[in-house]
Amino acid sequence: MDAELLIPIFGIVGVFGMPLGIVIAGLYFDTKNKDKFHSTLQKLIESGQEVSPELLQSIPGYKKENGERNDIRTGTITAAVGIGIALFGQFGVSETPLVGIGLLVFSIGLAFLAYGIYNKDKKVNDVS
After folding, report:
1. Fewest CB atoms within 10 Å of the CB: 3, 16, 33, 91?
2. CA-CA distance, 60 to 49, in Å (whole number)?
């Protein structure tokens, strides 16, 4: 095969195969962590130990179902990205579209920030 023919083949396989490889790797390591957690938990149960919530959380591979959200952090990061995009649009190559996109992202960040400040004393699963 000529080198000129291999370049497009590797390009197509790389472009379409890379996302597939990333997803497969993520699923593989997630399954590996779950298997590790369950085998450790099964050994604890078979040995007759009492399984407390603190012990469960200390087992490698433990995942919280409803993790705490940090809306203040999310809002600050999103607002900073919006300001960065707007400044890039203002002083960069093209003004109008990037400034608008930056201000849109900035307003989403401000909304996250306001929501996080408003709900910082409430728990995640609190319905009130």
Report:
1. 3
2. 17
Contact in structure between 70 and 115 (CB atoms under 8 Å): no
Considering its fold, how many domains does the chain have in total? 2
Q: How many CB atoms lie within 10 A of CB 98?
A: 18
The number of C-alpha atoms within 13 Å of 112 and in the hemisphere containing its C-beta is: 20
Domain limits for position 114: 66-128
- Amino acid identity at 117: I
**84 and 126: one domain?**
yes
34 in Cβ contact with 62 (< 8 Å):
no
Token duo for residue 79: 């607002």
CA-based R_g, the chain, Å: 24
* pLDDT tens, position by position, 37-89: 889 888 888 988 888 888 888 887 777 665 566 777 788 888 888 887 777 77
Instruction: State if pTM tops 0.90.
Output: no
